[in-house]
TrEMBL record:
Organism listed in the record: Paramecium tetraurelia
Lineage: Eukaryota, Sar, Alveolata, Ciliophora, Intramacronucleata
Coiled-coil intervals, chain numbering: none
Protein origin, superkingdom: Eukaryota
Keyword set, alphabetical order: Hydrogen ion transport, Ion transport, Membrane, Transmembrane, Transmembrane helix, Transport
Name of the protein: V-type proton ATPase subunit a
Main location class: membrane
């Protein structure tokens, strides 16, 4: 069962001659079953033998990304790879058909990409210069046209200078300024500024000149000027004209305005002094614009367009663009040399260590033989079984499919299971959707979620090939399907269809009468037959009685506690199964046994009281029904006191049973606390007496068991004994004891807090039901007294939007997160150590698939 426990791993030594290192690694990376062990994790990658090859691949990928960017800029279509296995086969065939050494193909690609990159840089620079020139011409043309509209023809006439000094232009219009032109000489400043800087520019001009300037602006058409440094994005600019008094060009106001323009990086232009020069300048700009446009077209057609075409024939396949093929080939090459860097180079030989799943050594041996067959004259590598080095356990590897992947990721996000530890993902597949369904229980809403899951599963291929947003949910489609099913199922258990009960099987109650004249107007329900039981779920009559909320709260709360205790008890049992599997008898005897007894005698007893109370018929004597909460409190505060009212008997036997349960639970606490640290301390002293050599030899012998024993039980028994003991053989007794004290307190107090935490199953279900009822009552319930009218239409629209936005979106996420917490904190902490590390298989397919999908821009 590869999903119940991780696959059995074998430790091997790999020996590869350097001249065939590329070919051997190329074959091994296609197997998807090898985990390379880094010979020195502290050594930086830059100091390793093949770091130069990795840097070359990185540089080429950067250059290809520039080419890709330019192709997208000029709207060239790029077909991305959808089947990386097809490319891997073609890459292999291409390399095999060459007469040169396999690793030299990178040199040919490098030369071709470098050449095209250099050409593209030169041509892109020329295009940017043309764009800049065109922008300047458009700005100058706009200055002439907009300036003429702002200033008018009178400013073409030379002004008679009379006096130079302060003239307050604040609040004056342009016509008033023209009247003053005969007595005061005016200067002007014309330029172009970004639209977003326009208001700040005006404000600063006003403050600097103290209102002694007139300024106006006009926007340039937004589709004319482009930003060459931002993918030719459109820039909105404005022409501004500043008119201020003063003669000459070196007065105080002029100097200040020039400094302001420099700070805003404003382009300033000169305005012609007469109409003849104005018209001549306008014709000259128009001519230059036409020439610039023609040159731009010629450069694109004759130079840039051929450069963007990848001329080198790489793989003849029309389904993938050649640029994408080159990129994925470089990704593959970089990954190959990264894996080679995990091997130690000694002379002309590479030595490395690998982990292989059980049975994968046959595939590796076959791949090594294929290297010698396919490439004559090249020596192949050797695979040798070896005992593991160091004390690190093997990696954890689970085989997952489309259904189990999402649930395993939930577990892995919290932590990777230890090697051969029970995998919580197997049980998460069943319990996670169920707990979600308990909180989201509703026939209508659950059915909508179920339909979504069915749609995603049935139309999987069609959605994957489309541009729909639903394609992002395909990866969890089976999880959505199961969550919707359990929400739909538990909705029938609660008999809740968007806050409306369904009388599917006929209620066991009917309206009755009250003999009391005071309460004769109240609606009462009488059971038709004492033996009548509603076949499935809750009788719909309970949704119509005054104490409906009280009844449903009590039912859901007790059901949540029962589910929580069962879930956590199962987690403790899994801890015992782990201890037996690893032959860790210390944990089994002094942790599992007292913990399961403690939990059963406390919260298991509480579940028994709840279920027993349900089986008793309290009709006509509800005032005699004891409170389970009161019974549990008195069990602690008054253990020997006779139970009154009793759940069974005269109360004395119940009190005796509770006292016995309490004493057994209290006795279990020191059993959890004391024996384990004492035994571990004794074992530590024994190992210290043997010395480091004796300990190393003992570990070596235990590690050799991994390849002899298909389960790896004995080897992992030692490792897990060290890790679960709160420290290795070098920890003092005080550290071990403190660790065990923390573990004991965490279990005892955690049993209380974790059980209370499962009440979220009740709270979320209550919140969901009450929200559905509020939406129904406020939006639709009033419309039933009318025919189909505008009021009902508006109410239904609001009801649909509120249901979708709040319940089908926000509440789904809320229930998902709470179910996640129940698994991570309440369930997994009972047995799950989560300190393993993943089996990182060497795989071309995985790394190429990760890079085949274009990144969102």
């Amino acid at each position: 069962m590869n999903f119940f426990r991780s696959q059995t791993m074998g430790y091997y030594k790999l020996i590869i001659p350097r001249e065939s290192a590329w070919n051997v690694m190329n074959e091994l990376a296609e197997l998807d079953c090898i985990h390379f062990v880094d010979y020195d994790p502290t050594l930086p990658m830059i100091n390793r033998p093949f770091a130069n090859y990795i840097k070359r691949c990185d540089d080429l990928l950067v250059k290809l990304s520039l080419i890709e960017h330019e192709m997208k800029k000029y709207q060239k279509k790029i077909t991305y790879c959808k089947d990386v296995n097809f490319l891997i086969k073609n890459f292999k065939q291409l390399i095999k058909e060459r007469s040169k050494a396999s690793h030299t193909y990178l040199d040919e690609i490098e030369n071709d990409i470098d050449k095209k990159h250099q050409q593209l840089i030169e041509q892109s620079t020329n295009m940017e210069n043309l764009h800049e020139r065109r922008n300047k011409l458009i700005e100058h043309k706009s200055v002439l046209l907009k300036g003429e509209a702002l200033l008018g023809q009178s400013f073409f006439q030379p002004a008679n200078y009379v006096a130079e000094g302060y003239v307050n232009l604040q609040g004056k219009e342009l016509d008033d300024i023209k009247i003053l032109q005969g007595s005061v000489k005016f200067n002007y400043l014309v330029g172009v500024i970004n639209k977003e800087d326009q208001i700040r520019f005006k404000r600063i001009i006003f403050r600097i000149t103290k209102g002694n300037a007139w300024m106006n602006t006009m926007d340039i058409e937004s589709d004319q000027i482009v930003d060459t440094k931002n993918d030719d994005a459109k820039i909105i600019k404005s022409v501004f004209v500043v008119v201020y008094p003063g003669g000459g060009g070196s007065n105080v106001i002029t100097n200040k305005l020039n400094k302001i323009c420099e700070s805003f990086q404003v382009a300033k232009y000169t305005f012609p002094e007469n109409n003849m020069v104005f018209q001549e300048k306008l014709r000259q700009i128009e001519t230059e614009l036409v020439e610039t446009r023609n040159v731009h077209i010629l450069i694109y057609i004759l130079q840039l367009k051929p450069t963007l075409m990848i001329s080198k024939e790489f793989i003849k396949t029309p389904i993938v663009h050649k640029l994408e093929e080159l990129k994925l080939f470089l990704v593959k090459e970089k990954y190959l040399y990264t894996q080679l860097n995990y091997l130690r180079v000694q002379g002309s030989v590479l030595y490395g260590s690998i982990w292989l799943p059980q049975g994968a050594d046959i595939k590796v041996d076959q791949a090594l033989r294929e290297v010698q067959t396919n490439y004559e004259g090249l020596p192949t590598g050797q695979l040798q079984i070896s005992p593991p080095e160091g004390t690190r356990p093997p990696p954890t590897y689970f085989e997952t499919n489309e259904i189990t992947w999402g649930f395993q990721e939930i577990v892995n996000t919290y932590g990777m299971p230890r090697y051969k530890e029970i995998n919580p993902g197997l049980f998460t597949v069943m319990t996670f959707p169920f707990l979600f369904g308990v909180m989201f229980a509703d026939i209508g809403h659950g059915f909508c979620l179920l339909l979504l899951g069915i749609y995603l599963c049935v139309y999987n291929k069609e959605i994957k090939e489309s541009d729909s947003l639903m394609k992002h949910a395909l990866i969890v489609r089976h999880m959505v399907l199961m969550m919707g099913f359990w929400a739909f199922y538990n909705g029938w258990i609660y008999n809740d269809f968007m806050s409306v009960p369904i009388n599917l099987f006929g209620s066991c109650y009917e309206p009755g009468t009250v003999d009391d004249p005071i309460h004769k107007d109240e609606q009462v329900w009488v059971q038709k037959d004492e033996s009548c039981v509603y076949p499935f779920g809750i009788d719909p009559v309970w949704m119509c009685v005054p104490n409906e909320l009280t009844f449903m709260n009590s039912y859901k709360m007790k059901l949540a506690v029962i589910i929580g205790v069962i879930h956590m008890t199962f987690g403790i049992i899994l801890k015992g199964i782990n201890a037996i599997y690893f032959k860790n008898w210390i944990d089994f005897i002094f942790e599992f046994i007292p913990q399961i007894i403690f939990f059963t005698c406390t919260f298991g007893w509480m579940d028994f009281l709840i279920i027993y109370k349900w089986f008793v018929n309290w009709t006509g004597k509800t005032d005699q029904a004891p409170s389970v909460i009161t019974l549990m409190i008195n069990m602690i505060l008054a253990p020997a006191k006779t139970v009154d009212p009793p759940l069974w008997g005269d109360g004395q036997s119940e009190a005796s049973t509770q006292t016995a349960m309490l004493l057994i639970a209290l006795f279990c606490i020191p059993i959890i606390l004391l024996p384990k640290p004492l035994i571990l301390n004794s074992q530590n002293k024994k190992h210290q007496a043997q010395g480091p050599n004796g300990l190393a030899d003992e570990k070596k012998e235990l590690y050799q068991k991994i390849n002899e024993d298909s389960e790896g039980t004995q080897e992992n028994s030692e490792i897990h004994t060290e890790q679960s003991g709160g420290g290795g053989h070098h920890e003092e007794f005080g550290d071990i004891f403190v660790h065990q004290v923390i573990e004991t307190i965490e279990f005892v107090l955690g049993s209380i807090s974790n059980t209370a935490s499962y009440l979220r199953l009740w709270a979320l279900s209550l919140a969901h039901g009450q929200l559905a009822e509020v939406f129904f009552q406020m939006c639709l319930n009033g419309g039933y007294s009318y025919a189909i009218n505008f009021q009902l239409l508006i109410g239904y629209t609001i009801f649909s939007m509120a249901t979708f936005g709040v319940l089908m979106m926000m509440d789904v996420m809320e229930c998902f997160l709470h179910a996640l917490r129940l698994h991570w904190v309440e369930f997994q902490n009972k047995f799950f150590k989560a300190d393993g590390y993943a089996f990182e298989k060497c795989s071309y397919a995985k790394v190429m698939q990760d890079n085949a999908v274009p990144k969102e821009e």
